[in-house]
Amino acid sequence: MNKGLRLEGVGRRYGLRGSWILRGVDLDVTPGTLVRVEGANGTGKSTLLRLLAGIDAPTEGRITGRPRTAYVPERFPAALPFTASDYLTHLGAVHGLARPAAARAAGQWLERLGAAAHAGTPMEELSKGGSQKVAVAQALLAAPELLVLDEAWTGLDAAARAELERAVAERTAAGGAVVFVDHDPRRLAGSPDATYTVAGGALDRRPRPAAATPGGPHVVVEVQGPPDAEPPADVVRLVTAADETAPGTVRLTVPASRSDVVLRALLTAHPPWHVVSVAQGSVESGDKEPGGVERGDPASGGVEPGDLAPGGVGPADVAPRSVPDVPRDEVPPDDVPRNDVPPLGTGSRR
Ligand SMILES: Nc1ncnc2c1ncn2[C@@H]1O[C@H](COP(=O)(O)OP(=O)(O)OP(=O)(O)O)[C@@H](O)[C@H]1O
Predict the structure, then answer these.
(1) pLDDT, greater one: 349 or 265
(2) What's the rounded Cα separation, in Å, for the pair 165 and 310?
(3) Which N-terminal stretch is annotated as signal sequence (predicted)?
């Protein structure tokens, strides 16, 4: 089963004589990658995302691969005749979860996004922000292999925006692919594995500046591992820099939005890595020496889950956060057709 997605010579136009919105688009979305799509208004970003999500079909060309896909559309149909919780539980079941697991995941995602108090609220009574949280939750419920986010951060409060960034990092760390459009150029800055610009119907890959270190808040994590071991691959692909500072000791520079995912991966690795210290800092472009305040104390034996103050950046963020845990046997089988049943009312079917 191919969990990646491939577009070959894809074109899309609306109506028989409509002008081509996209033409000759080739794109590989591989597992574990984060892809940003950008472009001026009306160039075809949402059109491309609908094709990736499987709720629209190309006029010409081929799309192959069948990752289990979830999609947050640019416009979410809020006026549905369900409470938030019932809607999400229903969607979870549609995505293949057993009903109790779907209800559990619905509650956990509403909690993570700060909307637990609205679980019993009818969808049509939700605020724009509340409704957007439900839109995001429905896409994250069943740990999709491909997550397609069309301006999904719009309308969320700051805490929910940060939570969605964390969820994106978790998805890619778990081997899922995420494709997103967002009007804010700082969104997940420095994190995408590839950035494409839609212009003139084509897709241009923007080169990633080779030596540039992404700006924004970073965390510096000092870790010690088994003799001669490299940090886990899941960790290495999420960090901005990994430098061996002494035999067996590695200093990781991590975008703050990925820090708890990285810490979790380190602490749950087999054998686990010892987190010696965690420091906050920010990295300006080209500045490879982020400063910061030491959060862990090497002399006291380092940092363990739960050591740090709640709200801080570090292992304290790791342990207590409730990550919807979908047991393997509750995840739909690989041969469920990609997005065969789209989120209710989120778009037309091919
Ligand atoms: N269902 C449709 N029927 C007809 N035309 C459409 C349809 N959907 C999109 N279009 C047209 O296709 C073009 C690209 O639209 P699309 O929404 O994909 O662009 P976009 O880059 O996402 O725009 P924005 O940044 O404003 O969201 C626009 O001219 C739009 O009017």
Answers:
(1) 265
(2) 19
(3) none
Q: Which residues pair with 35 in a beta bridge?
A: 179, 194
Q: Which of 258-262, 299-303, 337-341 has the lowest mean pLDDT?
A: 337-341
Q: Contact at 8 Å (CB) between 10 and 70?
A: no
**Using CA atoms in the order 21, 26, 30, 35, what is the torsion angle rounded to 10 degrees?**
-40
Contacts of residue 209, Cβ cutoff 8 Å, sequence gap at least 6: none
Q: Which two tokens stand for residue 108?
A: 């956990």
∠ CA 328-332-338, nearest 5°, is 135
> What are the domain boundaries of the chain?
217-318
What is the distance between the alpha carbons of residues 187 and 172, in angstroms, rounded to a whole number?
16
Cβ-proximal residues to 101 (8 Å cutoff; 6+ apart), any chain: 92, 326, 327, 330
What pairing do the DSSP bridges indicate for beta strands 177-181 and 146-150? parallel
Q: How far apart are CA 118 and CA 74, in angstroms?
A: 22
Q: Distance, CA 309 to ligand 1 centroid (Å)?
A: 46
Q: How confident is the model at residue 83 (pLDDT cuts 50, 70, 90)?
A: very high
Question: Average model confidence (pLDDT) for the chain?
Answer: 79
Strands 194-199 and 34-38: parallel
User: Does residue 151 contact residue 135 with C-beta atoms inside 8 Å?
Assistant: no
43 CB under 6 A from ligand 1?
A: yes
Residue among 324, 191, 318, 320 at smallest CA distance from 263: 318
Contact 39, 24 (CB under 8 A): no
Any atom of ligand 1 within 6 Å of the Cβ of 13: no
Residue 203 alpha carbon to ligand 1 centre in Å: 15
Burial of 220 (0-12, 13-18, 19+ CB in 10 A): buried
Q: Looking at the predicted structure, is the pLDDT value of residue 85 above 80?
A: yes
Q: Residue 42 C-alpha to ligand 1 middle, in angstroms?
A: 5
**Ligand 1 atom closest to the CA of 183, numbered from 1:** 25
Tell me which of 56 and 323 has the higher pLDDT: 56
Helices then strands (H, E): number in the chain?
8, 13
